[in-house]
Specification:
By secondary structure, the protein is of the alpha/beta class. The protein has one domain: Ribokinase (UDP-N-acetylmuramoyl-L-alanine:D-glutamate ligase). The protein is built from 13 helices and 14 strands. Strand 13 and strand 14 form a beta hairpin. The longest helix has 16 residues. The protein starts with a strand and ends with a helix.
Length: 332
Amino acid sequence: MKMYDVYGIGNALVDTEFEVSEDFLKEHKIEKGCMSLLDAEGHKSLSKLLRKEFEVKKQSGGGSAGNSMYSLTQFGGKAFYSCKVASDSVGEYFLSELGHNNIETSRQEKTPGTSGQCLIMVTPDAERTMNTYLGVSADLSMGEVNFEAAKNSEYIYIEGFLVSSDSARDAIMELKNFARNSDVKVALTFSDPAVVTHFKDAINDLLTGGIDLLFCNEEELKIWADSADFDEACSQMSKFARQFAVTRGAQGATLFDGKEYISIAPNEVRAINTNGAGDMFAGAFLYAITQNYNFKKAGEFASLASAQIVTQFGPRLEHKEHHDIKMKVLGE
């Protein structure tokens, strides 16, 4: 039996969420619905502006794969997470949240600099727009990879955002090859439309040779496939991913279990913030399949969990909410 259900690798970010107007995004020429990278000055300037005009709705540990590992452990799974933080209060906060939630991580060296932070702007239609300063997280490299932990996991889970960094891209390619040679399944999330738009070649490098499980949303899949036809995009992806899960907003989700397509009905809720929905879906889905539930049950479970997360601010649910969702769908 493996020591961990999932070994995740991704950016270490602390999220700060604001509820903003459509006009604010237009006025400051911020691309809605996507993740954009900022330098230190850009982050400082935008943070000051947001805090002046809007109140902070929520601050918490974040990062795409980090959020997924959080949900997996809150449902009862075991996770290891590789990331990079600086020796500052933001990094200490991020690491403390991992420890408090039973997520193991590599020993962090005392690294000078600034830890990663993400400014999340939520518009009245519940769409999230992210502006991110990666800080030292951009320097994630082979030094942060724990191959022993990866070898003792059922899956490795790679965050698509990492392809924006040369050193991180090298690390995840090496990790993927190691997993292949160690009989560990490889899962990947596209993370954001901007990743597929601007780093498609790097994404295709990760897909070369195939992966076991892909998570993405419909927009990301269509951008990757360069096709407006959903069925055609799925057909293309089936040549690279043995299995995949595509979230489709109000249409629910479409799964491919390697043999057939499975439609997962949506859960009707009043969405106020879509931040973290895809991360929650992936974390819940990974929990279910590593506990030997089938794809359909895993999809239903992940769909309900991601529906719950969009009804609040912040990308993470409380422990009791995880318990209630688990009881409702899995009966445990």
